[in-house]
Amino acid sequence: MFWSLLFACETPDDGAPVGVDETGLERDGCWVPATLASPTTIEEAFDLIDALPGGPSVDVPCVLEALQRPLHVELTMDTLSAQPAASPRSPRIFIRNAGLTLSVVPEGAGRPLLEFAEHQPSGLSIKAELHFPVEQPLDRRIAFERVISEQVTIGTLCGLCHWDETEVADGVFASIPLRPTATTLVALEDLEAEWRSCERAVEPDRCAMLDALFDHGPVVHSPFPLDYPTIYDQ
User: Has this prediction a pTM greater than 0.85?
Assistant: First the structure.
């Protein structure tokens, strides 16, 4: 909605998006102003997505590229999730901002998905999901509607694993946040090695996700708090 105030965009010959920032400098790639690059709520993440250049549709790597560095991540090879890891070489990647956790996977059925968990003072977290590519501007209700479960009378698919689910607004649900079990964790240096050895002509989509993660500034390990339960603690 404030697109024209933030920056003007055009598409160069190579197809890469170009933005012009508030100072008048041209910025290549998937970029947003610094005020949008560290979302701490789901709505702020939506604002970031709507501000990305190169629309009218954007993909998951573009969102990752735009996030402020350093990225704080935890990695799991757990396959028991609505967004399962494909393998240890393509784990589920949790990006842990203050107040908001995002998750992606480099390949497999969950690759088109961006998952959101917004942390609440109650100790619960609001869950939402987008399937990419998405059109700009976002229909923001879709992210909450996508996780609604048809298997229960009321609630979300997330509530099948994350207990104490509560409706905190109309069609918006929060539940207990979980941390990965220790036996499923993947070392950050192992994933960085996968990025460096990625064969872009053979696995372009997987490599694009890893490039978006590692090629735009520091990435650091950030484990979940130990007082978060695991799925086996219920």
Answer: yes
Residue 69 CB coordination number (10 Å)? 12
Q: Write out 29-73 in H/E/C secondary structure.
A: CCCCCHHHCCCCCHHHHHHHHHHCCCCCEECHHHHHHHCCCCEEE
DSSP 158-172: GGGTS-S-EEEETTE
Rounded CA-CA distance 171/126 in Å is 11
Q: What is the pLDDT of residues 95-140, one digit of tens each?
A: 999 999 999 999 999 999 999 999 999 999 999 999 999 999 999 9
DSSP string, 216-229: TS-EEE-PPPTTSP
Classify burial at 137, counting beta carbons within 10 Å of its beta carbon; exposed 0-12, middle 13-18, buried 19 or more.
Answer: middle
Peptide bond into 137 cis (omega under 30): yes
Phi and psi (nearest 5°) for 41? -135, 165
DSSP 3-state assignment of 233?
helix
